[in-house]
Every structure is written in structure tokens, then in C-alpha cells.
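This section describes the prediction task in plain terms. A model, or a person checking by hand, is given the sequence of a single protein chain and must write out its three-dimensional structure as a string of C-alpha cells. No templates, partner chains or ligands are provided. The sample shown here is typical of the held-out split.
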Amino acid sequence: MPNEKKQSKFGINLISILILVVILGFFAGISGEFFTKYYLSNLAFFRDLYFTEQTDLGQREIIIREPKKVVVEQDLRINQLKNEIQPSIVGVYKKKTTVKNLLDKIFLPADYLGQAVVLTSDGWLISTADVINSNKDNLIISYDKQIYEIDKIIKDDLSRIVFIKITAQNLPVIRLVDFTDVNDGQQVFMYNSYSDQLNLANIQDKRHKIINNKYDFISSSENLDKHILLDRELDNEYNGSPLVNFQGEIIGLLSGQTDQLNQAIPLHYINEIISQVLKDEEINRPKLGINYINLNQAYGLTEEDRQGLENGVLLWPNQNGIAIKQDSPLFGKLVSGDIITSIEDQKIDQGTDLLDILLQYKTGQEISLGYWHEGNEQELSLILQ
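The expected answer:
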């Protein structure tokens, strides 16, 4: 009998709790709708939204109250961006020979090669190898209706970004973005200095790598072969155009040798070498001397192949049979099949590539490297070469 009373009492208590939860949930829903309608609706972010009455399915829909207003505000921001970045972009043209006829001095569309972006106020510019594909004596810079001779050209062969020096002062500088703030699906803008047009696109893949055969899955720590892929193609007049976010920060430079462009070189490739170029030093990046497969991008590997890991880079021979070069600081320390998981406690994962981390350091720096060997987690220190 005592047990039956306890069970009966427990059942009554459980039912009471369930009823109380349902009642509280009901009032919470009403309070939430009241709070949203009469308080949040007065805030700027929610001002243009309202909730419909219940649909046939018993659900409510969020509707933009004034879609035209939202479009107008976006158009205004686009015009603001155009005014912000326009003074920091210059045109690159084929240099004309000495002419007497006034009309022959005017640049034609065929003379336009692309554009460059102001990097420093004292005349350093950046563009791409697709735009600056000739000797400096055959090129000319047009800025603010003035013509500038090119003093110096320095090409970074790995990134294919070109540094250009002109004699100028007080140029407006465009801001560089932190690549960690760049995301797939993000809306970006491209500016065509020749036609004075701003175009919109979305980032489809911030680390796009062209794959044509199985060996393309193998990356090199010395090959900057990942680019920002857009969801649309632009004509060749956008060559060298900056990719800009809503804050007016530059993400990359459009680059391509075809009539249609849809890829950009990310500017974090040059962050650590800018000071070297400005000091007239030789461009020098740290090298690991390894070939690897990014586990995030390789589907079909077994649990054993991955050593149970989802992230990291698997050291693997390239088409020439080399996984670790003889001049690598890792030669004799790691072997093919080992998986590097971190550098200086920064994890290599979906959001952070090995090169993203490596490019933050300089030659001669000592770093710690985390890796897995035959299912065991280990760590070593090395000096970057």
C-alpha cells in the first residue's frame, strides 16, 4: 500500500509539472510576441519588419514592411562605397609614343589594361601580374586626370601580386581586411575605374583550388594556389579591381587571363612581405617544404587513413614522389602519412588553412608544431627557413 500511494503521488506531481510547463510556454509565447511587436519594432534593425497573422499551417511569417526602403538604403550604401574607394584606385594603360595630334593622346578602350590600388600615401600601388604584364617603360598610370610614369615594379611570383612605385604624395590609402573576417556567401563589391562602375557579387569559396586530376588534391606549403571564387563572372575591364566589403576594406584583387573574371587573389598573401618591399628588401617567406592533403577537402579516406581525425593536413607525396623536401626543417622528423594539426597552438581546421597560419610568421622564427604519428599525438619545435 505505501508503494502504491507513492506511485500515485508521483504520477500526480508529474502531471502537475507538465501542465505548469505548458502554461508557462503559452504565456512565454504571448510575452515574446508582445515584446517583439511593441518594443523591438521601435529599434532600427526591426523597424522594417512585421509579423503576419497565422497562416493555414498555424505559423507566422516575417515580412519586410518597406522592401523599397531597404533597397534604397542598400543603393545609398553602394554609392557611399564608390565615393570612398574611388580615390584609392588608379588606371593602368599602355604608354603612348610621342604624338602631335591631340586626339592621338587620348586613351582608347584598347589602351586600358586594368587597375591598381593605392597601398601607401607616398606612391606605392598594388596590382596583378595579369595587368602589369609588360616592362615599366611600356606602361603608364592615370590618376585624377594626371599621368604618372612608373619608377619601379616588383613582382611577387608566388602570389602574382605586383608592387608599383610612382612619384606621388598624399594619396588616399585603402584599408586591408583581416582574412579571418572574410566568409563564404559574403557580399562584396568590385570597381571598374575605366567605366566608373561598381558591381556586386557573393563569395562562393574563399579558398578555392582548381581540381583537374587526383594530384591537384595535393597542396604545397610553397604554392599560393587558393583564390577567392565569386558567384558571377565579370568582363576583363575589372582586371586588377579590388574586392571590397561593406566596410570599404579590400579583400583581394580580381585576376584572370580570360575575357571573364570570377577569381581574386587574397591580399593576406602579401601581409608579411609589404614591409620587405617598402624597405627594398628581397621578398622572403617562411618555407616548410612539404606536400599535403587537406583533410577538410578530401572525401573518401578511411578512418585509418585519417587516424581518426577530421581536421589537419596529411603529408603525402606529390606527382614526383616527394612528401617532405630534403631542405625542409621537417626532413627526418616527420614522414609521409603524418598529420599536422596545429602551428603554435592554432588549429588547422575548416576555418583556418595551414598557409593562413604559416604566412603570419617570418623566416628564422621558432615555432611549435602539433602532429599525429601512427595514431599518437606529438609535438616538436623547429626554426622556419
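For orientation: The longest helix spans residues 2-38.
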